[in-house]
Amino acid sequence: MKKAGIFILIICVSVIYSCKHQKLLKSTDLTHKYEMANKYYEKGQYYKAIPLLEELIPIYRGTQKAERLYYIYAYCDYNMRDYILAAHRFNTFVRTFPYSKYTEECQYMAAYCHFQLSPKFSLDQSDTYTAIEQLELFIKQYPKSERVETCHQHLDELRYKLEEKAYQIARQYYRTGRYKAALVALENVLIDYPDTRYREEVYLLIVKSNYMWADNSVETKKHERFINTKKAYTKFASSFPDSEYLVEAQEILEKTNKNLEQINN
């Protein structure tokens, strides 16, 4: 009975507050609505603040209150984790109030929203590229900002993600027997990410891909491609003389030399 009474009380309180909120929405007292929009925002009741802000922003456009309304409007969407809308709101703020004390903050937040939207490496990386673009733009516009260091940290994380995706795509080409595509993808990893943490693995996969491509080629192409395998081995061995993969690479070299002997005979 006690629990039932508490439940009924909660329902009654909820209904009362809901009625008060509906009455507020229908009110013509703009000053009170402005005060309540700020109050809801400060209390974290963003879903209540948003309809008030949507009504007030066009009314107060061009006034001193507009800046505050636009600012908390963007943060309402951000705090509700609607990062797409929040990024749009923050960018709108920057365009509307280019000289505001909040402009730098909103420029950063627009970029950070796209950072939040960046998915795991296996998914489409459009938001990752947008985040990188936005973060680099912020650094260019505010090179002395205290947020620059954080931006560089975000950029490192995003680039690691793109690096991971590029490497995994190259590996997948190798695993599925698309050796020519694997070689192109692996070389692109080295070009796009010269300091990649997968550098050793990439060089080994280049050796293995060259060998498999040669071994599966028509007779007229085998000699040239086995020679390329030897070149790839030499580059790998000289770059990583203490590699844990060196024995595996040497086995490939031995098979390559045997194939070349057969071709030459």
Describe the structure.
The chain has 12 helices and no strands. About 6% of the residues have low confidence.
Topology:
Layout: H1 2-26, H2 30-42, H3 46-60, H4 64-79, H5 83-96, H6 103-117, H7 126-141, H8 148-175, H9 179-192, H10 199-215, H11 219-239, H12 246-264
Helix pairs in contact: 2-3, 3-4, 4-5, 5-6, 6-7, 7-8, 8-9, 9-10, 10-11, 10-12, 11-12
What can be said about this structure in brief?
By secondary structure, this protein is an all-alpha fold. The chain contains twelve helices and no strands.
Radius of gyration: 30 Å
Task: Give me the number of helical elements.
Answer: 12
**Principal-axis shape:** rod-shaped
β content, as a range? under 5%
Mean pLDDT: 91
- The count of strands amounts to 0
Task: Encode the helix/strand succession as letters.
Answer: HHHHHHHHHHHH
- Structural class, by secondary structure, is mainly alpha
Helix content: over 70%
The stretches of 5 or more residues where confidence is low (pLDDT under 50) are 4-10, 12-19
Amino- and carboxy-terminal Cα gap = 97 Å
